[in-house]
Amino acid sequence: MNHFYNILKYAKPYKRFAIGHIISNVFFALFGTLSFVALKPMLDVIFKKEKIAPSIKPVFSSNIEFSKLGDFAEDYLAYQMNQFTGGDNSKALILVVGLIIVMFLLKNISGYLANYFLVFLRNGVIRDLRNKVYKQTVELPLSYFSEKRKGDILSRVTSDVLDLQYSFLSVLELIVREPLTIIFTITAMLIISVKLTLFVFVFIPIMGFIISKIGKSLKRKSDRVQKEQGTFLSTLEETLTGLRIIKGFNAEENFNGKFQESTMRFYHFSNKLLNRQNLASPTSEFLGICMIAVILWYGGNLVLTADPNLALDSSSFIIYMGLAYNILTPAKAISRGLYNIKKGGAAAERIQEIIDTPNPLKDIDNAIVKNSFDSEIEFKNISFKYQDEYVLKDFSLKIPKGKTVALVGQSGSGKSTIANLITRFYDVNKGNILIDGIDIRDLTTSSLRSQLGIVTQDAILFNDSIKNNLKLGKENATDEDVIDALKIANAWEFVKDLPKGIETNIGDSGNKLSGGQKQRLSIARAVLKSPPIMVLDEATSALDTESERLVQVALENMMKNRTSIVIAHRLSTIQNADEIVVLNKGEIVEQGKHNELIDKKGVYQKLVDMQSFE
Question: What are the residue boundaries of the ABC transporter domain, all occurrences included (predicted)?
Answer without folding.
Answer: 377-610
